Amino acid sequence: MPYPTKLLNPDESIALDLHPHWWYFAEAAATLFVSIVAAIAQFILVKDKDHHTLHKGLTYITLAAIVLSAIWLLVRYLKWVTTNFVITGDRIIFRQGVFAKHGIEIPLNRVNNVNFNQSFFERILGAGDLLIESGGEDGQQRFTDVRRPQKVQNLIHAQVEAWNNRRAGFGVAAATAAAAPVDVAGQLEKLEGLLQRGSLSQEEFDAQKARLLGR
What we know:
Elements: E1 14-18, H1 26-45, H2 52-81, E2 84-88, E3 91-96, E4 102-107, E5 111-117, H3 120-125, E6 127-134, E7 140-147, H4 149-178, H5 184-197, H6 202-214
Antiparallel strand pairs: 1-2, 2-3, 3-4, 5-6, 6-7
């Protein structure tokens, strides 16, 4: 299930939308497989009528194990399909939940550092963990079972750089406008458009508006 575009800001685009790596299913799938193998072995090996009670008891146990492990695998799938790790041009978003939703959002301008970690086995599988350090309230956020974490790390750095370049471009445009006669009404209209699209914070908008009106 892709990340809902209706939750994006105006003019915000998705650069990456990932579900967890398939390794996320490993424990539940292995448990179901072992339960099925145990059930087959039990039917093959315990056939003697003298062991009817034992056979019946083992049958109940193996069937219960199969049902429980199948339910576990189904729950893992529902969590997997409703978990999104998203990178946009403005922020990093983590969203999870089948019915009740919870998530994390990290603005790109607050990202200080991105590290990835892979064991040798995870490197073979193409999975790993990401640790994102930010200037936010939580400071550090760890994301597990990320596909190709090194490539995701590089993409985050690229998006942060692109965001900084856009911000620098806006500063140059503002400086150029300061050196020329100003159409105050037109500039205010443009600033309001940037505020609505999320390109400016309310504080930045108020500062630019005060500067224009001061002229």
